Amino acid sequence: MSRQALVVGASGMLTGVARWLAEQGYLVTLVGRDQGRLAQVRDGSLYPQSFTLLPLDYHRTDHLREAMEQLIGENRHIDLVVAWIHQTAPDALPTIQQVLSRPNKNWSLYHVCGSKAWLHPPIVQEIASCTYHQIILGFICENEQKSRWLTNNEIAQGVIRSIQSQEMQSIVGQVEPWDRRPSS
Description:
Blueprint: E1 4-8, H1 15-23, E2 27-32, H2 35-43, E3 51-55, H3 61-73, E4 80-84, H4 92-100, E5 107-113, E6 130-137, E7 139-141, E8 147-149, H5 152-165, E9 169-172
Parallel strand pairs: 1-2, 1-4, 2-3, 4-5, 5-6, 6-9
Antiparallel strand pairs: 7-8
Helix pairs in contact: 1-5, 3-4
Organism: Brevibacillus reuszeri
Protein name: Short-chain dehydrogenase
């Protein structure tokens, strides 16, 4: 039986992660608002047959819950979740955790967070069957005066390294010195 992955917020900076998971043999379900952008993630992969598109807005908790219940109702045990979820949807991550944990099989959650999580970590529900990993996206100091946010490729490579290492917390780029964060 193939391993199953769910990538939430897959059509932007996690595109490379979703495609890498397919290359590793996962069947990958992509969640995002724009079906066209999800299709671009799938179609740009060497393994387009490994993808299922699940266009939905995770801000709509009822739709998210229904979609997650449908996944497990199809006897699709999700082994790994990579989630980039904005703070404007505070119920999305707990909904995913609660529903995917119902089959009571172990799975891993890689929660991708912005740099502010370094100072203000998100409160995440502990669930016995879910191994939680936090990935904090930082920035790059290029010299004494200039810093910048990470590129999508740098983010994807950092998330992939985090999945490979299975560390409980990892930082992509740097988060200190805090006053060097880019302003935009």
